[in-house]
Amino acid sequence: MTSQLKQDTPAKGKIIVITSGKGGVGKTTSAAAISAGLAMLGHKTVVIDFDVGLRNLDMIMGCERRVVFDFINVIQGDARLKQALIKDKRLENLSILPTSQTRDKDALTKEGVEKVLNELREEFDYIICDSPAGIERGAHLAMYFADEAVVVTNPEVSSVRDSDRVLGLLSSKTARAERPGAEPIKAQVLLTRYDANRIAKGEMMTVEDVLEILAVPLLGIVPESTAVLRASNEGVPVTMDEPSPASAAYMDAVARLTGEEVEMRVESDKRPGLLQRLFGMTA
Amino acid sequence: MFGFTFRPRPRKAKSAQTAKDRLQILLAHERSAGSGPDCLPELQRDILEVIRRHMKIDKDAVEIKMDRGDEWSSLEINIEFPSTEKA
């Protein structure tokens, strides 16, 4: 297996894992938003759900009714990759590879995952791996073949601690870490559920606090936004939905992933003005 | 607060309902029996086998599409075979 990895690979698709350790921090939301954003910029993109047994990416992407075959069917040879890929109906550059709802995580094999990823590299510019929470098999295989990692982190103690753990695994238990002379995985932090008001009040760690602890570059800051729940309700990736502070933040992060230099800025959901509050409206 | 509901805010009210509708349809399918993990791969294998008895087709020539709906679902099966088919 390592001998296959040693082969000189010409410029082919880039594998990016979206991971975090902790659950509920916004991995799937971010994987959906980033992959849709990349496709909107014209890059051929596929997003893979590695959370075997707890399929959810399909719902966030809004293609849950169209799942026929899944990642595990492809690994086990019951379906071809082309059959399992679901083409997004809104963006022609975007495809989704759903996970199995019925199997357990042991159905994933390193060899199987590698074979599928190699095939996807031939066809796509970006392969986004949506990792399950935790650090077990699914999470391990989601990060194992990655070229880059996006570590989704909330400004909250357990999330930062788990992100640190995951950063350690990225630099020790992955193909790039095990292959002598290989460039290490490029890991960046994506800070989500950021609440400027609470930071101003000293109730939440600042961006600087989090970065000082984790000591990796920052990919972006996604503010807490009502747009995120609305988008998931409707099965539309945040970046494809109507403009919001969250979609702007994700598009900036996407641009940075593609190598563009974008100034770091944080918008937030507008606080209702005095008049609006008097009339009982929410922004 | 309710005095101002005349304000057109359709999207906001609708997205929670959309979420509920999507979940109800999906969970109804997931809870129903007879759609085990191997159901569709087996169906594909069986379809291929039957058709192969009558004509020469490639094992990659079957395309299965599914659309799960509220009242009904559709299963679309496309089979490609060479136009100069000589069985």
TrEMBL record, chain A:
It holds the Pfam family AAA_31. ATP binds at residues 22-29. One of its GO terms (molecular function) is ATP hydrolysis activity. It comes from the Bacteria. Transmembrane segments: none annotated. One of its GO terms (biological process) is division septum assembly. Residues 14-160 form the AAA domain. Keywords: ATP-binding, Cell cycle, Cell division, Nucleotide-binding, Septation. ATPase required for the correct placement of the division site. Cell division inhibitors MinC and MinD act in concert to form an inhibitor capable of blocking formation of the polar Z ring septums. Rapidly oscillates between the poles of the cell to destabilize FtsZ filaments that have formed before they mature into polar Z rings. This is Septum site-determining protein MinD. It comes from Puniceibacterium sediminis. The lineage of its organism: Bacteria, Pseudomonadati, Pseudomonadota, Alphaproteobacteria, Rhodobacterales.
From TrEMBL, chain B:
The keyword Disulfide bond does not apply. GO terms for biological process: cell division; regulation of division septum assembly. The keyword Cell division applies. Keywords: Cell cycle, Cell division. It holds the Pfam family MinE. Prevents the cell division inhibition by proteins MinC and MinD at internal division sites while permitting inhibition at polar sites. This ensures cell division at the proper site by restricting the formation of a division septum at the midpoint of the long axis of the cell. Belongs to the MinE family. This is Cell division topological specificity factor. It comes from Puniceibacterium sediminis. The gene is minE.
